[in-house]
């Protein structure tokens, strides 16, 4: 994610600025929309890679050997993690800029806190989703034996939910009316510091969630 932020700031913004004439390159609405779309592509890539891994396990007779090493290169995981990093960078920066720009001065700190509240609720709902899927599939999708389970089906479900979320975002964007608030130099500097801090915190949180989800699913 940190690499994505650096590339975004040093490469994408200057290029986009030439075409849009905006100092920021693209709007925070475009950033958030792109982040949500890339996140969906990341989960889609995960579904395809999991299907390939499971097919390789079946081909080599390893379906009943969950501890065996499936002959699939670990580099197949690079696309999904790269997409997740890019998606998180775009969505996080866009979200924080939106909250600062569209909140009155007295509410900007509270708006930043709401960002983390929303993220916490999302993590909790992710746990609820795993429980619901486990119950609805009667333990078939998320088994202790990952080679017999259908983790790819779970990824497809999450991809579908992310596409619905993107469609809902477009509806909200269409009906949203921009508000204008004056921002002084001090507020702008504070906004940039908070955006950078939020991005770093999101990276640490994402890394922890990946480890936790692996331990929970596998």
Automatic annotation (TrEMBL):
Main location: membrane
Membrane topology annotation: Multi-pass membrane protein
Transmembrane segments: 28-49, 61-78, 113-133, 153-176
Keyword DNA damage: no
MF annotations from Gene Ontology: transmembrane transporter activity
Keywords: Membrane, Transmembrane, Transmembrane helix
Subcellular location, record wording: Membrane
GO cellular component, one term: membrane
Family named by the database record: Belongs to the major facilitator superfamily. Proton-dependent oligopeptide transporter (POT/PTR) (TC 2.A.17) family.
PANTHER family: OLIGOPEPTIDE TRANSPORTER-RELATED
Entry protein name: Uncharacterized protein
Organism: Oryza sativa subsp. japonica (Rice)
């Amino acid at each position: 994610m940190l690499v994505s932020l650096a590339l975004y700031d040093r490469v994408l913004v200057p290029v986009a600025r030439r075409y849009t004439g905006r100092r920021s390159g693209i709007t925070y609405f475009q950033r958030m929309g792109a982040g949500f779309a890339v996140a969906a592509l990341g989960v889609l890539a995960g579904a395809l890679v999991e299907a390939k891994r499971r097919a390789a396990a079946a081909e080599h007779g390893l379906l009943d050997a969950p501890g065996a090493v499936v002959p699939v290169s670990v580099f197949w995981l690079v696309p999904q993690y790269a997409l997740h990093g890019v998606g998180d960078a775009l969505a996080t920066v866009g979200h924080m800029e939106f909250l600062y720009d569209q909140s009155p001065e007295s509410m900007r700190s509270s708006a930043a806190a709401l960002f983390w509240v929303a993220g916490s609720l999302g993590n909790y709902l992710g746990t609820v989703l795993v429980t619901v899927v486990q119950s609805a599939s009667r333990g078939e999708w998320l088994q202790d034996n990952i080679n017999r389970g259908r983790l790819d089906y779970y990824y497809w479900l999450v991809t579908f939910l992310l596409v619905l979320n993107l469609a809902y975002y477009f509806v909200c964007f269409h009906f949203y009316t921009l508000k204008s608030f004056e921002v002084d130099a001090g507020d702008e500097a504070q906004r940039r510091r908070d955006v950078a801090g939020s991005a770093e915190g999101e990276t640490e949180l994402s890394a922890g969630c990946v480890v936790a989800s692996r331990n929970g699913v596998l």
